[in-house]
Amino acid sequence: MSTTIDQAFIKQFEREVHESYQRMGSKLRATVRHKTDVQGASTVFQVVGRGAASTKARHGKVPVMNLEHSHVECALADYYAGDWVDRLDELKVNIDERAVVANAGAYALGRKTDELIIAELDRSANLAGAATDGLTRDKVLAAFEMLGTADVPDDGQRTAVVGWKQWSQLLALPEFADADYVGADELPWRGTQAKRWLGTLWMPHSGLTLTGGVRLCHWYHRTAVGHAAGADVATDVTWHGDRAAFFVNHMMSQGACLIDPKGVVTLRCKEA
Fold first, then answer.
1. Which residues of 90-112 are buried (b: 16+ CB within 10 A; e: fewer)?
2. Cα 1 from Cα 75, distance rounded (Å)
């Protein structure tokens, strides 16, 4: 076997970890505001207030909106996920086995990314409905009304993330799952990852907070939550002769923050 197989293994492994994370590591990263290549221990997301239009006199000055500008700071933290891999030639040349190890590290970091975002969504004080029942039609409509009342843009950038129990409850609603209401192209039976309903991308997620038998589901706009990455997913593979094994370390520096609390509505759903 070639003496350069180690380097080939390492380079391909790093590429596969990065691709796996981008493809399947995080479900929520693409649904929020995102900044990359952040320098330093924190970054800021700008918040712009609401403006108002008004008239002006002929030849008069154009009125100024005097928009309020503020910002929300997002702190970054470093995360690691490492494991030992025995030096087996089969692992170096067998794509399937190598992909298993690469995916495991990428998924671990992806779950951490979603944990950061979910923790910020949990800070929402906008609660739709009571926590004494599941995800009902009335609770969905109450949340829909709250978003509209708060002037949250209905521009196709809303996302609703629910638990798998709540996803099953949605499937029992004709308005969600019946072609007579949503059309043949939006039927959830075509796949369980996501579907559009009420101008929103709905998706199930297994990592939502469960407290006292109540699952916290969230309906939010993309601009309401921010995610920042100082160092995106990276992999370091080093050889340890005393262990006759590689140590594979996956790492990233990321953080999340709640930018606009009005843009997030939480649906508390009882889960037996």
1. ebbeeeeebbebbbebbbbbbbb
2. 47
In Å, the largest CA–CA distance within the chain is 84
Domain range list for the chain: 5-48+68-270
Q: What CATH architecture applies to the domain 5-48+68-270?
A: Alpha-Beta Complex (3.90)
Q: Do 157 and 222 meet the contact criterion of CB atoms below 8 Å apart?
A: yes
**According to the model, what pLDDT value does residue 68 have?**
63
pTM above 0.90, yes or no: no
268 within 8 A of 129, measured Cβ to Cβ: yes
* Strand-strand pairing, 127-128 and 264-270: parallel
Average pLDDT on 106-115 reads: 85
Which residue's entry shows tokens 């949340």? 143
pLDDT at residue number 15: 64
Q: Taking Cα atoms as reference points, which of 129, 127, 111 lies closest to residue 119?
A: 111
* Range with lowest mean pLDDT among 179-193, 225-239, 253-267: 179-193
E strand segments, the chain: 33-35, 42-48, 69-75, 77-86, 127-128, 158-162, 195-197, 200-204, 210-211, 214-221, 225-240, 245-258, 264-270
pLDDT digits (tens, 9 = 90+) for 224-252: 999 998 877 777 777 888 888 778 787 88
Quote the CA–CA distance of 194 and 203 in Å, as a whole number. Answer: 4
What is the Cα–Cα distance from 47 to 56, expressed in whole angstroms? 28
Write out pLDDT tens, residues 196-208.
Answer: 999 999 999 999 9
Q: What share of the chain is helix, strand, coil (3-state, %, to 5)?
A: 35, 35, 30
Mean pLDDT of the region 45-55? 70
In angstroms, the CA 252 to CA 136 distance is: 38
